[in-house]
Specification:
Largest sheet: 2 strands, antiparallel
Order of helices and strands: HHHHHEEHHHHHHHHHH
Number of helices: 15
Radius of gyration: 26 Å
Helix content: 55-70%
Structural class: mainly alpha
Number of strands: 2
Length: about 280
Amino acid sequence: MHISHYPVQGMLVTNELRLAARPLAISTVTFFPRGIRKLVWWVYVKPDSLWVKWVNHVYLQGDNWASYKPKSDATWSWKAIRRVKELFADAYQGGQWSQSASYSVTSGYNWIRKPQPQVSWAKYIWNSWCIPKHSFINWLIARETLLLKDRLFGLGIATDDLCVLSGLSAETHSHLFQQCVYTQLLMSKLMKLLNIRLPGTDLLNWVQKKPWNKTKKLVVNASVQACWYVVWHQRNCARLELRLRHPDDVLKDVFGVLKIRSEFWCTCIKKRRDWYWVKSLLD
């Protein structure tokens, strides 16, 4: 399987970075800022630093750092420092870092990214029991940001919005990963192998709320993620390559991936009973 089989949501990822970067270019704020923000802070509080003395002599020349604007012939690096200073202007009050007693990279990062709402599914998607590429696709599914045909049709890119796996309903996130006949057949076969009764809808929340122990929740969750990942892959194959595999063949691949992953799971399990359960489940 090549990465080309999984169209990455470039617009989403770029927007996420831009949100973190706010008004500055991504390259300036996201990748360079740890050192740059420190330099901005030093100009405020470290007048005895050799570098700050040099800056005062060459660039500031007695000007107020809070209101300073570089000249047109200043170097690009100095202009970048000044842009970062402007970005953090609201966080400095009277030359003091307002978020804590002194500036730190962590406090600067937390200030620029702003508090983000917590979601209940985060720890189930982003954990070491799941395969990283599965987690990424399932993160997009949870956020409902995959470019499915309902969105493509609305943008005028697709000629219709019908699901490419069933052709029965509009291809939305809830349909493709919950209601589609292909997905339900694949998921029911997987749950049967795991000896679990499949719920009607909202599978991810159902796993979270079940009164299982931690090991069983993580194993079932990783299995669901693997299933949704291959559904996304088969959807792309059907749409882009005009080929679709039978759910039984796809299930063998899912089961093979989970069996390999179980070797890692067994190293994390502390209770012998859970260890035997995982081994018997996938042997």
